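User: tokens in, sequence out, please.
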């Protein structure tokens, strides 16, 4: 008989240090963020199988960090009731079950874990962590020859010996946004489109001397942010000019004019969503095939 038990969707906001993870996605024999979290869920719901699986806003690569990652999971009424909640219909609609789940997951991970659930809540109607998102915001940190690397941040900052020209890097970055085929800045994947809308890309040097890139897009194809950073570093070193980045973008063919930047300088800062009433529509639109006008 088909199981039609009602489910409640829970939104999880989480952070992790990507140093010791082989990326987000579960992989056989590898320690991943998804694997660690779903193992915790399997422990929590061992008497109420099958354990829920996670859907994430954006899969991060090995070594990439996150402060504002978002995921969701669906729990049936029995699973919610097992979180020491009163067994009543309204329990699943309140915040108690989500908060209990957050505490249980973090308790299994441990107080000094490199992944942490920051918040949990019953998701609004139509919410999908992946497909309802309207943008993702990343930061990339670089300490160049003009800036001694803070050793406490060495796991989250790329150190280069060259002194980079931040102004020309910013000029090159600001010329790139728009709806384009980003194949020149992505690793190809079978069946996956490389058409994206880059909403913002800029470089600035902070008061501490560290160069920071801010990259905002509706979504990113595989290694796109690290490729954009790698191309920017080539500009900052004088090996490429701002016009070269536009040429590479418009050619939409992956070449070897620059290396992809290391993962450790990259952090997912935030994922943006529309108003609650537009969540389902946004998810339906995102599932459609992306096309250039």
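Assistant: Sequence out:
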């Amino acid at each position: 008989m088909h199981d039609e038990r009602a489910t409640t969707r829970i939104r999880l906001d989480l952070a992790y240090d990507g140093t010791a993870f082989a990326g987000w996605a579960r992989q056989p024999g590898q320690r991943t963020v998804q694997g660690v979290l779903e193992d915790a869920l399997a422990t929590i719901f061992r008497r109420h199988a099958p354990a829920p699986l996670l859907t994430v806003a954006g899969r991060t690569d090995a070594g990439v960090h996150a402060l504002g990652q978002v995921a969701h999971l669906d729990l049936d009424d029995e699973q919610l009731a097992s979180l020491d909640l009163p067994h009543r219909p309204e329990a699943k609609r309140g915040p108690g079950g989500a908060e209990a789940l957050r505490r249980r997951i973090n308790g299994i991970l441990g107080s000094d874990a490199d992944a942490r659930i920051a918040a949990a809540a019953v998701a609004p109607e139509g919410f999908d962590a992946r497909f309802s998102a309207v943008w993702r915001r990343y930061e990339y940190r670089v300490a160049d020859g003009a800036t001694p690397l803070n050793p406490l941040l060495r796991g989250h900052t790329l150190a280069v010996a060259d002194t980079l020209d931040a102004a020309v890097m910013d000029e090159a970055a600001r010329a790139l946004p728009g709806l384009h085929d980003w194949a020149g800045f992505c690793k190809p994947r079978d069946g996956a489109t490389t058409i994206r809308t880059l909403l913002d890309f800029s470089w600035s040097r902070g008061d501490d001397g560290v160069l920071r890139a801010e990259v905002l897009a509706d979504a990113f194809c595989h290694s796109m942010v690290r490729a954009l950073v790698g191309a920017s570093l080539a500009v900052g070193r004088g090996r490429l000019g701002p016009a070269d980045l536009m040429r590479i973008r418009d050619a939409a063919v992956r070449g070897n004019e620059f290396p992809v930047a290391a993962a450790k300088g990259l952090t997912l800062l935030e994922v943006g969503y529309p108003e609650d009433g537009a969540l389902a529509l946004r998810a339906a639109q995102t599932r459609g095939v992306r096309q250039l006008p």
